[in-house]
Specification:
alpha+beta; Outer membrane efflux proteins (OEP); four-stranded antiparallel β-sheet; two-stranded parallel ribbon; 10 helices; about 15% strand; transmembrane beta strand
Amino acid sequence: MKIKYLVVGLAMLFVKPVVAQEKPDVRTLSLQEAITYALEHNEDMQKASYDQLSAKYMVKEAKSSGLPQVNAFGNFNMYPAIPVQVIPNVFEGKPDEMIPVQFGTKYNANGGIQLSQLLFNQSYFVGLKAAKSSEDLYRLRKTMTEEEVMYNVSSSYFQILQTKEQFEIINANLARLDQLNKILQLQYENDLARKVDVNRIKVNKTNLETQLQTLTSALDQQMNVLKFFMGMPLEEGIALTDAAITLDTGAAAFNSSKDLVQGQTQLELLNKQTELTDLQMQNIKAGYYPTLAATGTYQYNAMRKEFNFLDTDMPWFKTAIVGVQLNIPIFDGMRKHSQIKQTEYTLKSLEADRQKLTKNLEVALENSISQLQNSSSSIAAQEQNVALAQEVYDTTNDLYKEGISPLTDLLEAEVSLREAKTNLNNEMLKYQLAQLGYLKATGDLNTLIK
């Protein structure tokens, strides 16, 4: 029996370290670290990076049309029936008589190299500009994706901090109720308190515990949302540190909203799309210009009555051609004219979008400034309210201990204190989200990682 216990004890010694090793590590992240992680691992960021890299090769593709084009070719034809042509019978001095004649051989083969070099094509030069502009477009799209990721991560981060603060508020209330419940229970057991008072404490405590469970579920969901925005595995454990935004709104006092939003990535992206559409129109107009290219061909031909192309004693005949090719567009059925008109209306539509977006950004900026001012005033008012609620609670608690104030007054004071702290916590979140909205409206979200 002693040996059995010894074996079990030794087994437990080995099992405990293994269990400890399997406990997942918790990574502590600041707001800046969370954003940096998201910019490296978020799937949308990875996709935007791939698109930007792809755009670099679009420029190389556009340039390739202006470089020499070299192609090798080969061709083999067999004629089961050799073509027949009819010609005048000049061989017998009868030009009015037509006779059938076969030209060529049954087996024919040729092979060689073709070379072409673009000398002039207006569309080529426009295409180079469009390719470089497209590269800028994808760069701006990546920047806009970065801003969206930074905003989403920051917003989720602050919401989690607000929920954790609410945890502390409820836990503090539960601690006070636990202490009060113990005192009342002793008083009740000694016939110094009523059963109804004990039940009131239990009801309030149960309500708080229910709120705590709801907050626990909400916190888990918020953590999962944050990890999703960060591109982090859901099973990885993280802990967040306190965070605050240092915001300089001085520029808003000296500049108009229209000036402040000019650096917005969304506006730059729309301007770039307008530029590309204008280049598209130039490319269509370039179709009216002639094109000129140099061409060259060097090839060998062989004609055989029998299939003996591998016979080195049989000749191959070489041919070399050098020339230029000129294409002059004359009439295309008004196709390019219609394309130009379509593009003109597209440009007008983009201009309307630009005006609308500018107004939306101005409204968003004005609203964020207004929310900042309102939240700042509300925070100051709620801080005073919390101090006042705390004073009321402390006074009521002292009066209750002296037997002057009833339990209901103490519970009401406790609820009022909790509501005041909750309201302050909510206003703090609104203020932080308003700061994010201001940074987003002015295009300064990148200051969060600097």
